[in-house]
Predict the structure.
Amino acid sequence: METPEQAYARRQAGSAAQRSRQAAGKHDDEANRWQMDIDVYGREGRDYSDPDKAAEGVRNRDWHRGQAARHTADAERHEAIARPPAPKKRRWRS
């Protein structure tokens, strides 16, 4: 038997998982943007190389990747809540 609170949590979990997936996608896109900056400014021996900008890009890229991983884990947790419970099996013997 499911309590009203559990039913409400399951109804809300689907949209929460979707929002978490969207946030993870945004952080992943931002991490890729920082990776492009790292690729450009991290080249040594070029006129436009800048180790400080490259180091800042590495920090920001790692932070955004961590946030994307956190949002993905949240989405998986919400999706697990949204799944209906498995029906109980009928047993002939206890």
Notes: The longest helix spans residues 4-41.
